[in-house]
């Protein structure tokens, strides 16, 4: 029988250093994709949840926490939203992510803690829905640092961001087929257009029946 079935939504993730333009570009893509169907923008850390409150205090240096404890809080902050995310996707809504598990792995691995390898950092997110595409806003740490609003929170310093960039690079190499690296240090409108085209190819793949995978 021919049943009219609205397929699942796509999961598209934005990653990049602090101030690389993820929030701007994800909001622009949200507005663009609203013309195509149901779409939502989710951001991690989600600062509204109980774990999110702790994470914010930590980021503003109001709280000092063990590095592994913080890592697991960030991961828990994603797990809290997991069931809702899967339901949304299954109901046909596309979800854009402003940071996700790759931030979790890259930022903790960048700390170079004895025993917390990149693999250790990825383990707590294994099983979460995997993005159909991760759009990496590539920008040099120096260029990002010169943008306004930089330097107020923990992690926002060039030295640390250089380490984060190295870890992102390692993550991109693990899944070259699902990562798109774009130049974030170019005209904002040109970049938006590039990202719109990218996103449409992802929506097409998903429409063709591409299955939702899980992080490993
Ligand atoms: P934001 O600037 O996108 O709000 O994110 C706040 C900081 O948290 C940013 O420096 C990246 C960092 N971060 C982690 O360290 N681990 C994570 O899992 C996530 C999502 C963000
Ligand atoms: Mg930030």
Describe the structure.
With 216 residues, this protein is α/β, with parallel strands linked by helices. The protein has a single domain, classed as P-loop containing nucleotide triphosphate hydrolases (Rossmann fold). It is built from nine helices and five strands; from the N terminus they run βαβαααβααβααβα. The chain has a five-stranded parallel sheet, with helices on both faces. Helix 3 packs antiparallel against helix 5 and helix 5 packs across helix 8. The longest helix has 20 residues. It is globular. The chain binds thymidine-5'-phosphate (TMP) and magnesium ion. Magnesium ion (MG) binds next to loops. The site of magnesium ion has 2 residues, from loops. One of its GO terms (cellular component) is nucleus. Belongs to the thymidylate kinase family.
């Amino acid at each position: 029988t021919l049943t009219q079935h609205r397929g699942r939504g796509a999961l598209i993730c934005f990653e990049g250093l602090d101030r690389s333009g993820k929030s701007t570009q994800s909001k622009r893509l949200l507005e663009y994709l609203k013309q195509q169907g149901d779409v939502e923008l989710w951001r991690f850390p989600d600062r509204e949840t109980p774990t999110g409150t702790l994470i914010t205090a930590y980021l503003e240096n109001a709280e000092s926490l063990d590095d592994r404890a913080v890592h697991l809080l960030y991961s828990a902050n994603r797990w809290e939203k997991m069931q809702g995310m899967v339901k949304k996707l299954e109901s046909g809504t596309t979800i854009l992510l402003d940071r996700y598990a790759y931030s979790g792995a890259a930022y903790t691995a960048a700390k170079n803690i004895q025993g917390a390898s990149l693999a250790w950092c990825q383990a707590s997110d294994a099983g979460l829905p995997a993005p159909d595409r991760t759009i990496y806003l590539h920008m040099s740490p120096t260029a990002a640092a010169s943008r306004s609003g930089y330097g107020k929170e923990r992690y926002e310093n060039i030295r640390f961001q250089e380490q984060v960039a190295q870890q992102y690079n390692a993550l991109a190499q693990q899944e070259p087929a699902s990562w798109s690296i774009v130049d974030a240090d170019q005209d904002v409108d040109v970049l938006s257009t590039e990202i719109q085209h990218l996103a449409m190819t992802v929506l097409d793949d998903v429409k063709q029946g591409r299955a939702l995978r899980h992080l490993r």
